């Protein structure tokens, strides 16, 4: 029997992970004493992202006995940051916008659970919103703050772009980091970072478009004085939030004990639902899209061909929601999304072992100049990690895609453009040993296929 990456991860629950490197700054806090009950947990996504990135984390929490109704993953309306935090930009959010939205989500989770305080877990920019809420009056509502790959001292720290929230010398981060301790008393803080593989914690500016220019930050940039700071090894910017190793540290810090398992416990019956959003002008938004149709097909895992008619069909209303759809945990699926003013997007997914209400469907970005001569466009997406690390084998149709770079990973997507004569055939997408088969739909019909890896 061939071992897949998923099988290895599912078996990881019986194996101890390597111990993370512990770094503690001045006034560092200890992990809290084990509570009698784990507080409700609110998960906060990063720049340009959405709630579904936390799907596998939610499943692992559920597999360790955390009730689903005591967890929530926020969707910021406009997830992309402004280039200048003080100047309004259409479709982008300020630090104050995100602080206000997160404060409202905290209040709602407290109301729905009856809890006095909640735990917050943030990826990347989501950690900024968490720190902003806590520092500006919200500390009494928060028991724990876990910041995963958050560039707490900036993606860069220079005299350029003084009003960028990602500038370590800018007013926003200087305000958050002022004082002998960089954390707020009364809240237990944990930071998780990479040991050199985070593209937003690099001394050289090549990943922010300035190769050869010092950024003024280092791999230690996500750490905070006064927090418990853990180094998770050679994980990338997203993996320090969504990898099984990250889950272990998140759970252990909040619950005060080791998780019983790292594996995801499958359910016998799976119900899926979520939100449809779009990319107007090519920029992502988490605002609901009305009038979108969602058709779900069971597909053959070896060929990608549909097995019969749609198992679920829906049209979104004003709230952008679709579902629930009843599927089997062993089914490979195709989600066909037709949204106004967007390409028809065919999203191929490996099986869902558990139910989820955060199966977020965002239409692909519009076809661009690079696609004009393509007969078909197939995108491979690894939303919980990046491509390009030396340890990864990433293949589309048995070949490394041209836009996968070597070295420190640069993106979570890779694109294959096919000539017109190859439209209609099946494309095999592989990350290490996880495999998804997608169909090459004709770009002339404004269709894009996405092979999205669950793990």
From TrEMBL:
Lineage of the native species?
A: Bacteria, Pseudomonadati, Pseudomonadota, Alphaproteobacteria, Hyphomicrobiales
Q: Where is the AFL C-terminal domain?
A: 269-366
- Keyword line: Hydrolase, Signal
What Pfam families does the database record attribute to this sequence? Lipase_C (PF18067), Palm_thioest (PF02089)
Q: Where is the composition biased (Basic and acidic residues)?
A: 81-98
Q: Name one GO molecular function term.
A: hydrolase activity
Which residues are the signal sequence here? Answer: 1-28
* Name of the protein this chain belongs to: Hydrolase
Is Cell membrane there in the keyword field?
A: no
Q: Which residues lie within the region annotated Disordered? A: 76-98, 303-323
Decide whether keyword rRNA-binding is in the record: no
